[in-house]
Amino acid sequence: MSLQVVRGLAAASVVVAHAFRVPATEGFLVDGRLANIAAAGVDVFFVLSGVIIFLVAGGSPSAFMRRRFLRVMPLYYVATIPYIVVAVLASGVIEPDRLATSYLFWGAWGDRISVPYIAVGWTLNFEMLFYLSAALVIWARHWALVLIAVYAAAWFGRVQWGWPVLQVIGNPIILEFLMGVAIAALWRRWQWNSRALAWTMVIAGVAALIALPSRDGALMWMPDVLNGKVAFERVVWWGIPAALIVAGALGIEARKSFLTYLGDASYSVYLGHSLLMSAFLRLPPMQADILALIIFTYGMTIGIALHEFVEKPLLAYLHRRRASPQLAPA
Questions:
Q1: What is the pTM of this model?
Q2: What values do phi and psi take at 254, rounded to 5?
Q3: 108: which DSSP letter?
């Protein structure tokens, strides 16, 4: 339950990171610092993913991938549609590489890395890569050593030649998934049930995010994260504190509350919050902090609405389809 709280807060922090970068002027909170710190919510998601996949992985590789696909793909595909419509209305063209990246979860095309129409979807490309890797390890444990060797070789090739495919496969950001796997393995062996220790880790992680240098937005500059230029630095400054937060959360029990609900809605919030966000610049001039808070409220509202009116009915429909006797395997 505590991981759900972390998931919800991570989603809200990503909304803060984007909402507080929209205003054209600075304010008390809109000075770049808060947005930079809040962007680490993405890194928390990566570490969380490693933890959860390690703890829930089981059964056959095909069953594992089917569960992951059903959880991730349908909502993502539906949520992408309005982003495409907005982009086409604005530019008059559909970009084939971005369309392919959006629906195939792969961004390395030719000599560059493309970004999906939902900008934060770049993280799901790495998620899918991680899921495929996990499925191979479920199939046969020796694949773990093979994948480590491939990752190391791709890292070396990325540094030497900079090919986009190697920038994806050998990207340092993947270390954050592996941090999550390591945390889950340690948790399974030595569960830390001391609330004092757990809270110490969480507080240390948050304090580190606040205290460590944010590089004035350089660590959240997507092109340099995708090509690996700042990804390792991001892992150090944001990934390690994120790992502390997630590790600590494992040792804390959380009661059902709005924060756990926010965790349930986190995927929808993550995907939906940035739709038409820049349109708020057309509002009459106002103080930057007020504008940022309005945009944040809008982003959270859109995300929760997507959860209630699209994600929940869609998942319920898919679960009914899976449970239908007519669809059961012979």
A1: 0.94
A2: -125, 135
A3: E
**Whose structure tokens read 């944040």?**
296
Q: Cα separations (Å) of 9 from 33, 71, 114, 254, 256?
A: 18, 20, 28, 13, 14
Q: In this predicted model, which residue has the larger pLDDT, 103 or 328?
A: 103
Query: Is the Cα torsion angle 132, 227, 39, 272 positive or negative in sign?
Result: negative
Calpha distance 180→173 (Å, rounded)? 12
276 pLDDT band (50/70/90 cuts)? very high
- Sign of the C-alpha dihedral computed for residues 141, 143, 148 and 151 taken in this order: negative
* Rounded average pLDDT over 23-34: 84
Contact in structure between 3 and 257 (CB atoms under 8 Å): no
29, 37 Cβ separation under 8 angstroms: no
Question: Each residue of 173-231: pLDDT tens digit?
Answer: 999 999 999 999 999 998 888 899 999 999 999 999 999 876 667 888 899 999 999 99
Q: What share of the chain is helix, strand, coil (3-state, %, to 5)?
A: 75, 0, 25
Q: Which residue has the higher pLDDT, 265 or 26?
A: 265
